[in-house]
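Fill in residues.
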């Protein structure tokens, strides 16, 4: 049994677990990331008090992770889990919306898309998210105490505008510019704040890392070609096909746009015979296309895919196969 079918089995388990209990999430392989180690020597404090955690703290690439449900609880956020898209949505007590996806490097924050320090992952039935990024997005500060091997979290209340205390005063007090504070609160430059207005003062570091934008046209075109080429494959197989197109965009041998890749050459006959125009992506394909555009890549460096039972030419035999998922081999 190949890796694609193994992961497909895990996806089935994921759906069952999510239906049973929101905060319990399914097991999933951590493909390119490797397993996150349990950090038994690390302490987490919230407002000076050491936390007792039912689930282990995990560490990956030097960064700490906690289950999303626990982080939400710590900072008074509400969380929902979407089994179909494998996404956790957090609604913060200050009205922000945060969306994390399994192994997806991009986080949705209100109306923007930003790059996380590390992608979330699923382990032992929980979706884990990078602690610093998550805490800042939930309006808290994080400080690492190296001497005590402790992550110190501090909740931060929103500043409230009064007659004698306005944006300029908040700027001085917090060390953030008025422009940065307005942007954080999704207000236009030069906006005047009324008495009683609440100002979010924690500016998450992810806001300095905007994700590369894509258009609706790009999204639908990628989804439509993925549907034609892999609509009957597993989600993993669909994700692989979508990423072959995106990998080509980064390769000087191919065009630098999704449309250019799909319509050039002979790799994608549906683009030339009318099938692409008639394509109607299913839910799994839509998820795969979105995740690929958000940086989730399970076929790193692969710029070709083919069915080895059908494509037997010397060209395909000469390729270096990265992975086989379902009926397709992905190669470079």
């Amino acid at each position: 049994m190949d890796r694609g079918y193994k992961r497909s089995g895990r996806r089935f388990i994921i759906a069952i677990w999510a239906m049973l209990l929101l905060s319990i999430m399914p097991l999933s392989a951590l493909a390119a990331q490797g397993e996150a180690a349990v950090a038994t020597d690390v302490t987490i404090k919230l407002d000076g008090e050491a936390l007792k955690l039912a689930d282990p703290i995990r560490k990956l690439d030097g960064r700490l992770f906690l289950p999303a449900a626990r982080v939400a609880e710590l900072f008074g956020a509400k969380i929902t889990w979407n089994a179909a898209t494998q996404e956790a949505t957090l609604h913060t007590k200050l009205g922000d919306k945060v969306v994390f996806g399994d192994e997806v490097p991009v986080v949705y924050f209100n109306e923007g898309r930003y790059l996380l320090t590390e992608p979330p992952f699923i382990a032992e039935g929980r979706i884990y998210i990078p602690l610093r990024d998550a805490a800042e997005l939930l309006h808290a500060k994080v400080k690492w105490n190296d001497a005590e091997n402790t992550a110190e979290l501090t909740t931060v209340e929103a500043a409230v505008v009064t007659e004698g205390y306005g944006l300029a005063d908040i700027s001085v007090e917090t060390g953030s510019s008025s422009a940065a504070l307005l942007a954080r609160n999704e207000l236009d430059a030069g906006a005047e704040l009324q008495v009683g207005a609440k100002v979010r003062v924690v500016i998450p570091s992810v806001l300095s890392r905007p994700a590369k934008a894509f258009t609706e046209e790009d999204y639908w075109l990628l989804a439509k070609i993925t549907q034609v080429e892999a609509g009957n494959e597993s989600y993993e197989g669909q994700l692989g096909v979508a990423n072959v197109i995106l990998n080509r965009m980064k390769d000087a041998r191919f065009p630098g746009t999704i449309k250019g890749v799909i319509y050039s050459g002979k790799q994608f006959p549906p683009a030339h015979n009318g099938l692409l125009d008639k394509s109607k992506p299913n839910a799994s394909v839509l998820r795969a296309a979105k995740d690929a555009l958000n940086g989730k890549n399970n076929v790193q460096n692969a710029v070709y895919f083919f069915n080895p039972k059908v494509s037997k030419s010397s060209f395909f035999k000469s390729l270096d196969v990265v992975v086989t998922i379902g009926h397709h081999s992905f190669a470079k």
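The chain has three domains: 3-153, 157-201, 216-331.
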